[in-house]
């Protein structure tokens, strides 16, 4: 195919379908419709002048960032989509070549944009290039579901995730800042494998996730229990917690600081930021024939001054 002028026959058949599908499923960046004018205050303005439409990628509908590409007929495309359409213009099907749209890039750079999490409460306005960076750490960005037992892709704010944990994962909810929790596994297979449990505590009007699970620490089978705070790290640091497990005159205690659920369950576990109990001790505490796990983990959450 000749560069610049060729028609990309190979993708013509499948293109219209995938184009529609992409538009319908990947339109997530709502902020493209809100462009601040500088004098409109901090909420930005609903733009009706079409500038935002110019900057919306025709394939994925997200805001285009430089480099912005155009085909020989002037149709623009974001760099991600340029790769995805195999360099073939989705509008006129000419080969894209390597033409930048510098004018549009300049327009893009001159804009001030609202954070994409505006719907969730963020009213900040950003110059074009700071927007993406801010959004990655925006405190209004949705949290991931803290449930660890399966791949769960649900995201949302804390009240939404609390009801999601209760309704969709059947997680136990408890009120109060002290707890005394029994973990019982009578199936030896479960004792040795990825046993994990999650309990949520309501305390000081906030929610804390108590995790308990088995994992391999190097060659050693251990259990770990730790607390995660359903909120930002800066707030998590205002709390402390203690955990205690034992029996027959022996006990392990742990005092720590809850981690924010911004840190994944796996990250916290792998950093061993919690009460780590070697399996043989856990089975000793459980008594009996060492075939079942019967642990009582007690603990307390308090607010640091
Ligand atoms: Zn695109
Ligand atoms: Zn074109
Ligand atoms: Zn924001
Ligand atoms: Zn979930």
Please write out the topology:
Blueprint: H1 15-25, E1 34-36, E2 45-46, H2 51-54, E3 69-70, E4 76-77, H3 79-84, E5 99-100, H4 102-110, E6 112-114, E7 125-127, H5 128-137, E8 143-144, E9 155-156, H6 158-168, E10 172-175, E11 178-185, H7 188-192, E12 196-203, E13 206-217, E14 220-229, H8 233-236, E15 239-247, E16 250-256, E17 259-260, H9 265-270, E18 275-278, H10 279-286, E19 293-303
Parallel strand pairs: 10-12, 14-17
Antiparallel strand pairs: 1-2, 1-6, 3-4, 3-5, 6-7, 8-9, 11-19, 12-13, 13-14, 14-18, 15-16, 15-19
One zinc ion binds at residues 145, 147, 152, 154, 164, 168-169.
At a glance:
The chain has 305 residues and is α+β, with helices and mostly antiparallel strands.
- Uncertain stretches: 11-48
Overall 3D form: elongated
Helix and strand content put the structural class at: alpha+beta
Please tell me the overall pLDDT.
82
Strand content of the residues, in percent? 25-35%
Tell me what you see in this structure.
The chain is an alpha+beta fold and 305 residues long. It folds into two domains: 9-137, Herpes Virus-1 (2-Layer Sandwich), CATH 3.30.40.10; 143-303, Sandwich (Apoptosis, Tumor Necrosis Factor Receptor Associated Protein 2, Chain A). Helices cover 24% and strands 31% of the residues. The protein is built from ten helices and 19 strands. It has helices at residues 15-25, 51-54, 79-84, 102-110, 128-137, 158-168, 188-192, 233-236, 265-270, 279-286; strands at residues 34-36, 45-46, 69-70, 76-77, 99-100, 112-114, 125-127, 143-144, 155-156, 172-175, 178-185, 196-203, 206-217, 220-229, 239-247, 250-256, 259-260, 275-278, 293-303. The strands form five sheets. Strands 10, 12, 13, 14, 17 and 18 form a six-stranded mixed beta sheet that branches. The longest helix has 11 residues, at 15-25. It is elongated. One zinc ion (ZN) binds at residues 57, 59-60, 62, 78, 80-81. One of its GO terms (cellular component) is autophagosome. It catalyses: S-ubiquitinyl-[E2 ubiquitin-conjugating enzyme]-L-cysteine + [acceptor protein]-L-lysine = [E2 ubiquitin-conjugating enzyme]-L-cysteine + N(6)-ubiquitinyl-[acceptor protein]-L-lysine. Keywords: Metal-binding, Transferase, Ubl conjugation pathway, Zinc, Zinc-finger. GO terms for molecular function: ubiquitin protein ligase activity; zinc ion binding. Pfam families: Sina_RING, Sina_TRAF, Sina_ZnF.
């Amino acid at each position: 195919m000749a560069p610049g002028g060729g028609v990309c026959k190979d993708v013509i058949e499948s293109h219209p379908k995938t184009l529609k599908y992409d538009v319908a499923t990947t339109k997530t960046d709502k902020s493209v419709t809100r462009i601040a004018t500088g004098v409109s205050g901090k909420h930005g303005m609903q733009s009706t002048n079409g500038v935002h439409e110019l900057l919306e990628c025709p394939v994925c509908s997200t805001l285009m960032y430089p480099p912005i590409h155009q085909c020989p007929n002037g149709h623009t495309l974001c760099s991600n989509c340029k790769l995805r359409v195999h360099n073939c213009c989705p509008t006129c099907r000419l080969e894209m070549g390597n033409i930048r749209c510098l004018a549009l890039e300049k327009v893009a750079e001159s804009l001030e944009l609202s954070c994409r999490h505006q719907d969730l409460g963020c009213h900040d306005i950003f110059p074009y290039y700071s927007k993406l960076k801010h959004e990655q750490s925006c405190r209004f960005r949705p949290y991931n579901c803290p449930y660890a037992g399966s791949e769960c892709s649900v995201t949302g704010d804390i009240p939404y995730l609390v009801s999601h944990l209760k309704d969709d994962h059947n997680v136990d909810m408890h009120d109060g800042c002290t707890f005394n929790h029994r973990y019982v596994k009578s199936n030896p297979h479960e004792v040795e494998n990825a046993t994990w449990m999650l309990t949520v505590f309501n305390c000081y009007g906030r929610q804390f996730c108590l995790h308990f699970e088995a994992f391999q620490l190097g060659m050693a089978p251990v259990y770990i229990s730790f607390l995660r705070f359903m909120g930002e790290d800066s707030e998590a640091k205002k709390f402390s917690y203690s955990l205690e497990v034992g029996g027959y005159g022996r006990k392990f205690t742990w005092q720590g600081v809850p981690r924010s659920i911004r840190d994944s369950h796996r990250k916290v576990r792998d950093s061993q930021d919690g009460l780590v109990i070697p399996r043989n001790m856990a089975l000793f505490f459980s008594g009996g024939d060492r075939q079942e796990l019967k642990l009582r983990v007690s603990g307390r959450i308090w607010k640091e001054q």
